[in-house]
Specification:
Blueprint: H1 2-5, H2 15-36, H3 48-73, H4 85-111, H5 121-159, E1 171-175, E2 182-186, E3 190-196, E4 199-206, E5 209-216, H6 219-225, E6 232-236, E7 239-242, E8 246-252, E9 255-260, E10 266-268
Antiparallel strand pairs: 1-2, 3-4, 3-7, 4-5, 6-7, 8-9, 9-10
Helix pairs in contact: 2-3, 3-4, 4-5
């Protein structure tokens, strides 16, 4: 069970995804309470729609707030490349507790004056956990399994693909943003380039050993200087790779990852990277 909590899991990063997730969760809560009328709601005669809609709206607002604010306040914890099931569970648990507090206050200050259901704070915590948290854990379990199967199958298929690439043995000179510094090397010796703030770290082979050269330039501007080389691809906002150096593609619930020669870690592939171009990332 402990190993399951450490499995990779995708975290929503775009505004559209965050809005959609919050809207879906709020709608599920509203429909569940309105249709099934649990926890004494069936005894209500009036204001049923507005009463249950209030809980759905609370769920939507708090979920959306947390999806935007928490990653901003705790960027290291919410690093999408290091997001795991355990972190997602903690996020949902914290969000559920916040929703339960808001539900209790909503009923206390708004619903009770119109003769709606009156219950204790602990009751609302337990009810919110039952309605929201545990079904979400089940959703995480199912979605992680489905995503992992999908990415692993595609990764295996891609890793078994052998395309012939034209080798590029010419020298290239990369010029810094200030145009005061430059770095020359054989393009085929390039392994990958990573973004380091206003700098770019160029990792290349020299005498079959991995070397690093730091130059002051953004990855976007560096990408423009390398656009004539078909085997040099930007696979992620922080990485440019030489496809000749890709040994295999791995996949898990978070997405695809590249294993390159001479390095002991995997390079992530952006989820926005066109899937048809993944075939260009295998030797």
């Amino acid at each position: 069970m402990n190993a399951w909590f450490f499995k990779p899991y995708p975290f929503v990063t775009t505004t559209k995804q965050k809005l959609l997730m919050s809207l879906v969760f709020g709608k599920i809560v509203f429909l569940f309470l309105y249709i099934f009328k649990p926890f004494g709601i069936s005894n209500l005669e009036n204001n049923l729609v507005s009463y249950t809609l209030g809980f759905g709206l609370i769920t939507f607002i708090i979920t959306l707030f947390n999806l935007f604010i928490f990653p901003f306040i705790f960027p290291k914890f919410f690093n999408p490349n290091k997001w795991i099931i355990g972190k997602m569970t903690l996020f949902f648990l914290g969000t559920t507790l916040m929703i339960s507090i808001a539900n209790w206050y909503y009923n206390l200050s708004i619903a009770r004056p119109i003769n709606q259901i009156d219950n204790t704070f602990l009751y609302y915590v337990l009810v919110t956990l039952l309605v929201g948290f545990f079904p979400l854990i089940f959703y995480i379990y199912i979605s992680e399994r489905n995503r992992s199967k999908q990415y692993v199958l595609v990764a295996k298929k891609l890793s078994n693909t052998n395309d012939d690439f034209l080798k590029e043995d010419e020298n290239i000179t990369l010029i810094s943003a200030t145009k005061k510094d430059s770095f020359s090397f054989v393009i085929n010796d390039l392994v990958y380039i990573s973004s380091e703030g206003n700098y770019a770290s160029i990792f290349y082979l020299k005498n079959n050993e991995l070397k690093e050269q730091l130059i002051r330039i953004s990855l976007s501007k560096l990408e423009n200087q390398l656009q004539d080389y078909a085997s040099i691809v930007r696979c992620h906002k922080s990485y440019i790779v030489n496809t000749h150096q890709v040994l295999q593609i791995d996949g898990n619930a978070r997405g695809y990852f590249l294993k390159l020669d001479k390095i002991d870690f995997s390079i992530p592939v952006s989820r926005s990277f066109p899937k048809e171009f993944l075939y260009t990332l295998v030797k």
